[in-house]
Design a protein that fits this description.
The protein has 374 residues and is α/β, with parallel strands linked by helices. It is built from 10 helices and 16 strands.
Length: 374
């Protein structure tokens, strides 16, 4: 009898300890600390996917936000635990530190946004061979050798920004029919340049084929030199509007936010000015009265979809490691928002016809500077 009681006590203790162990594992990785954020649905995740942000904020209306939204969707739809960390600086060592912190916390998938991560991912993909990496808008290389090396545990993703810019240019020209356009870019890097060149080709196509009369003067194409100087963006936009510009395409992150704010101020004063948004649908950011917005449309590249798709691919055992992928109009990786309140039905119909021709190859958009609007 004493032996039976002793066995019963031991079994009870084992069950209690096991329950405590389960409670600890359930909470693992859900605390993001003071420099990050986390999300989970309370169910056991199949694995953990983390993100290291670039210099901007997590709600920057650009790459950080789009990448994180993809991970949040993976948390909701796939049960994958997600978390982001914000580095203290923007050097390779700053990025590698946070990648290492995620890895040590069990996040064996890391998604990073932008070309600034190229050398960090080059180092990380060799250091953490049992982890998987997604580099959006960049390709891993060393600081001394620009030759890309996409490791077997890494995917490099690019977008056809020129196609997105082209569609936004056509849509803007069709809606406004005539007037002056402007372009404000952030840093003059390939993705921003492609937005500009595609936009100009779209305006020219509309002028040549769809009866519009849009001009774009050289002084109204400006690269500000950063992605976070909102005040400078507002000043540049004000100067353009004062010169008679009717609408501005902003591919400039936080600089573009300044331009949006300037346009909103003028719209409140009764001026007819517009902004073409970038990366995501910026309509809500341009609301200035009721549901009225100064965002005519937005040239989108679907960063959140890319982020989500890679998490899903890894979960399904289909991670395309070692590959460089391009999200373009043919796979619906770029375009304009499905809903454009400031575009009328006639414009949308004609834009959809142009998109069909792009997908079929009847219309081709150059990814480099070429025959642009004058």
């Amino acid at each position: 009898m004493k032996k039976s009681i002793g066995l019963l006590v031991i079994c009870t203790l084992i069950l209690v300890l096991a329950a405590c162990g389960n409670n600890n594992s359930k909470n693992e990785g859900t605390n993001a600390g003071t420099n990050g954020g986390s999300a989970h649905e309370g169910t056991k995740a199949s694995f953990k996917a983390g993100m290291v942000t670039d210099s901007g904020t997590i709600d920057d209306k650009s790459f950080n936000q789009g990448t994180w939204e993809g991970l949040l969707r993976a948390t909701k739809d796939l049960g994958v635990e997600s978390k982001y960390l914000k580095p203290t600086g923007t050097t390779e060592s700053d990025y590698l530190k946070e990648i290492g912190n995620l890895y040590d916390a069990g996040y064996k998938m890391v998604v990073v946004p932008g070309f600034k991560f190229e050398t960090a991912i080059y180092a990380a993909q060799d250091k953490y061979k049992d982890a998987n990496f997604v580099l959006i808008d960049g390709s891993p290389h060393t600081a001394k050798d620009m030759t890309p090396k996409v490791g077997a545990n890494t995917v490099s993703i690019f977008f056809a920004e020129h196609e997105s810019g082209f569609i936004a240019g056509v849509a803007s020209a069709l809606q406004l029919k005539q007037g002056e356009a402007g372009f404000i870019g952030g840093i003059e890097i390939p993705p921003v340049q492609k937005y500009n060149w595609g936009f100009q080709q779209g305006l020219k196509y509309a002028n040549d084929n769809l009866g519009t009369k849009i001009t774009l003067k050289p002084e109204n194409v400006v690269y500000q030199g950063s992605f976070d100087d909102a005040a400078a963006g507002g000043q540049i936009a004000a100067q353009m509007y004062d010169r008679g510009v009717n609408f501005i395409f902003t591919a400039a992150g936080g600089v573009g936010v300044g331009a949006i704010n300037e346009a909103k101020t003028r719209a409140k004063a009764g001026k007819s000015v517009w902004i073409v948004g970038v990366d995501g649908d910026q309509y809500k950011d341009g609301v200035y009265e009721g549901d009225k917005s100064i965002i005519l449309t937005s040239a989108m590249k679907k960063v959140s979809e890319a982020s989500f798709d890679m998490v899903k691919a890894l979960q399904e055992g289909k991670f395309p490691g070692g590959q460089t992928l391009t999200f373009d109009i043919k796979n619906d990786g770029v375009g304009i928002p499905a809903t454009n309140p400031n575009l009328d039905d006639t414009t949308i119909t004609k834009v959809n016809e142009v998109i069909t021709k792009l997908k079929s190859g009847e219309i081709k958009v150059a990814a480099e500077k070429g025959d642009l609007i004058k």
